[in-house]
Design a protein that fits this description.
The complex is a heterodimer of chains A (51) and B (189). Chain A has two helices and no strands. Chain A is mainly alpha-helical. Chain A starts with a helix and ends with a helix. By secondary structure, chain B is mainly alpha-helical. In chain B, α1 runs antiparallel to α3 and α5 runs antiparallel to α6. The chains are: A mainly alpha (51), B mainly alpha (189).
C-alpha cells in the first residue's frame, strides 16, 4: 500500500510539474511522496529490528 | 550428530525440489524460495524434536554439545521464532543480522536525504525567494505578494539545493554498490 501510494504521489508530482501547476500543488504531491517514503523506511526498520 | 544428519537430508531434498543451479543463478523469486527452504529445515528439526521429546513437538531444552554452535546473535535471536540450530539464514530477510544492518543504514541515509529536501523548503519559506520555476511566482495562498525577483538565485537556498543534489547522486551510487556487494557475497556463499 505504501509503495502504490508512493508511485501515485510521484506520478501526480510529475503531472503537476509538466503542466506547470502552482507551487502548492507540487509541494503537496512531493510531501505525500516523502511522507510515504519515510513511512516505508520506518516500517522496514522496525520489521528488521523486531521481526 | 542426529541434528546435522537431518539438516543435510533436508538440504538434499531442497536441491531436488528447487534446483541449486537455478538458485545460484538467481532464477525465480528468492523471497519465495528461501522461506520454502526454511520450512523444510524446520520440518526436519521438528521431527527430531518429537523423537527426542517422546512425541511432543517442541524445541529441546538442552542442545547437544557435539553439534557445532552458531555465533551468539544467531543462536540467541531477539525472539525465538526459529531455532537457529536448524535454520539456514537467508540473505534477504531479517533473520540475517548483516542484512538487518544494511536495511537500517540505508533507511537512515534515506531519511537524511529526505531531510535535505525539506531543508531547502524551510529556507525558501524563510526568505520567501530562491524559487526554481517561473510558475512559482504566481499569486497563491502561500505566496500572497509575488514578485518576479523571487526566482533570482539566492546563495542561502542554492547551498541547500546543491547539498540535496550532491547527496542524491552519491547516495544512489552507494545503495547500488551495497546491492552489488550483497549479490556478489550471496553468490560466493
Amino acid at each position: 500500500m505504501f509503495l502504490f501510494g508512493y508511485v501515485a504521489a510521484r506520478m501526480a508530482y510529475t503531472w503537476a510539474y509538466l503542466t506547470e501547476q502552482d507551487h502548492e500543488m507540487r509541494a503537496a504531491c512531493f510531501t505525500v511522496g516523502a511522507a510515504l517514503t519515510a513511512g516505508m523506511v520506518i516500517y522496514a526498520g522496525t520489521a528488521a529490528l523486531w521481526h | 550428530m542426529v541434528f546435522r544428519d537431518r539438516a543435510d537430508r533436508a538440504d538434499v531434498l531442497f536441491g531436488i525440489r528447487f534446483g541449486k543451479r537455478s538458485l545460484a543463478l538467481g532464477k525465480g523469486n528468492p523471497v519465495a524460495v528461501f522461506p520454502a527452504r526454511i520450512r523444510v529445515q524446520r520440518r526436519a528439526a521438528e521431527q527430531v524434536w518429537a523423537e527426542r521429546a517422546g512425541g511432543e513437538n517442541r524445541p529441546p531444552k538442552f542442545i547437544d554439545p557435539a553439534v557445532p554452535r552458531l555465533p551468539l546473535y544467531a543462536a540467541n535471536p531477539p525472539n525465538r521464532r526459529h531455532n537457529h540450530e536448524y535454520t539456514i539464514m537467508s540473505p534477504f530477510t531479517a533473520d540475517n543480522p548483516v542484512f538487518t544492518l544494511y536495511v537500517l543504514a540505508a533507511g537512515l541515509a534515506i531519511l537524511k536525504m529526505l531531510g535535505h529536501a525539506f531543508l531547502t523548503v524551510q529556507r525558501m519559506v524563510k526568505v520567501n525567494s530562491g524559487f526554481l520555476n517561473p510558475e512559482d511566482t504566481r499569486r497563491t495562498l502561500m505566496n500572497p505578494n509575488p514578485s518576479p525577483t523571487q526566482t533570482d538565485t539566492n546563495d542561502y537556498i542554492e547551498l541547500a539545493r546543491r547539498l540535496t543534489a550532491t547527496r542524491a547522486r552519491t547516495r544512489r551510487s552507494s545503495w547500488s554498490l551495497g546491492g552489488c556487494w550483497w549479490q556478489r557475497r550471496h553468490r560466493r556463499l
